[in-house]
Design goal:
There is one protein chain. By secondary structure, this protein is an alpha/beta fold. It has three domains: 88 residues, Alpha-Beta Plaits (2-Layer Sandwich), CATH 3.30.70; 115 residues, 3-Layer(aba) Sandwich (Oxidized Rhodanese, domain 1), CATH 3.40.250.10; 60 residues, no CATH class. The chain contains nine helices and 15 strands. Strands 4-1-3-2-5 form a five-stranded mixed beta sheet. A four-stranded parallel beta sheet has the order 6-10-9-7. A two-stranded antiparallel sheet has the order 8-11. A hairpin with a 2-residue loop joins strand 2 and strand 3. Helix 1 packs antiparallel against helix 2. It is globular and about 60 Å long. The two termini are 23 Å apart. GO terms for molecular function: oxidoreductase activity, acting on paired donors, with incorporation or reduction of molecular oxygen; transferase activity. Catalyzes oxygen-dependent 5-hydroxyuridine (ho5U) modification at position 34 in tRNAs. It catalyses: uridine(34) in tRNA + AH2 + O2 = 5-hydroxyuridine(34) in tRNA + A + H2O. InterPro entries: Rhodanese-like_dom (IPR001763), Rhodanese-like_dom_sf (IPR036873), TrhO (IPR020936), TRHO_N (IPR040503).
């Protein structure tokens, strides 16, 4: 698999979003092999390692990402790892992290095992027909700030602040959603597919049999379904400094607020309540003067680093952590 090269001259960085549920008997050993490799290849981003597998998004040159994937595919159960490649004009991450975790995507349901039982995979080309069927209920498994940027037409927004909230939301809403006379099938989707591995396994453990999920997530759909045939509305939030992407995985129009970490639309960026790096309409007036001064200094340092062509090491993106996915 190669990184898309259509716009390689303008966007020389290859971004790899990947995950694999597998069994790692010694996650620390996997981490020890990956961390120095990423550093030697100049790759930035975050990989999460747990007994249940690997998850993350990283970026670098085409050759560096190719070398990393060669190594990852030698890990137990990772020969066929799910990888989504896209391009960016600059490195969308500032740091390199390989972190040990209890879960590669945090749902807080330790008995759920996607390797044992998950929903039916649906390819992007078949997704429109499925979600347009009257006997299908469509659920967005992402967080509220992601859904606000874009979603599939007619999908239900659970309005959850984190993926940990999804099981409680479903249990409380199950009768309303799937009671007598309601749609018999459930279709779910997320950014890259990993949350749906767990959410469909969770629904099946709850006794829901007809469960489907979008293979490769929204990113796979936006890459393979033409815009004129798409049922996607808006942009797709991603967990790096691109903030959002559109069809063909082109960088979108949103910024991210350093203060509250929420995506900021072009309209909101034009608001007098928006100050780059300091505040946005969603959080204006909620921070102390000391916090605002700290944010402003951080933005000044980032701007200075950008003008020098260097990286500001203190720059952060909460949503850059693939745990949020």
């Amino acid at each position: 698999m190669e990184c898309p090269s259509v716009t390689e001259a303008e966007m020389p960085i290859c971004v790899a979003a990947l995950y694999q549920f597998t069994r790692f008997d010694d996650p620390a050993q996997v981490q020890a092999g990956l961390e120095p490799l990423l550093l030697s290849l100049g790759i930035k981003g975050t990989l999460l390692i747990a007994r249940e597998g690997i998850n993350g998004t990283v970026a670098g040159t085409d050759d560096a990402i190719a070398a990393l994937l060669v190594h990852i595919r030698t890990l137990p159960g990772c020969a066929g790892i799910d990888v989504k490649l896209s391009r960016a004009p600059d490195l969308p991450f500032h740091r390199t992290k390989v972190k040990l975790k209890r879960e590669i995507v945090t749902m807080g349901q330790p008995d759920i095992d996607p390797l044992a039982d998950v929903g039916h995979y649906v390819m992007p080309e078949d997704w429109n027909a499925l979600i347009s069927s009257p006997d299908v209920i469509v659920i967005d498994t992402r967080n509220d700030y992601e859904v606000a940027v874009g979603q599939f037409h007619g999908a239900i927004d659970p309005k959850t602040a984190s993926f940990r909230d999804f099981p409680g939301w479903f249990r409380s809403e199950r009768e309303r959603l799937l009671g007598e006379g309601k749609p018999a099938r459930v279709a779910m989707y997320c950014t890259g597919g990993i949350r749906c591995e767990k959410s469909t396994a969770f629904l099946k453990a709850e006794g829901v049999e007809d469960v489907y999920h979008l293979k490769g997530g929204i990113l796979n759909y936006l890459e393979h379904v033409p815009a004129d045939q798409s049922l996607w509305e808006g942009e797709c939030f991603v967990f790096d400094q691109r903030v959002t992407v559109t069809h063909d995985l082109e960088p979108g129009s949103y910024a991210v607020c350093h203060a509250c970490r929420l995506p900021v639309s072009q309209e909101e960026q034009a608001s007098p309540l928006y100050e780059a790096g300091v505040s946005c309409p969603a959080c204006h007036g909620t921070k102390t003067e000391a916090q605002r001064a700290s944010y402003a200094e951080r933005q000044r340092q980032e701007d200075l680093a950008l003008s020098r062509g260097t990286t500001h090491v203190g720059a952060t993106r909460k949503q850059g952590d693939p745990e949020a996915e």
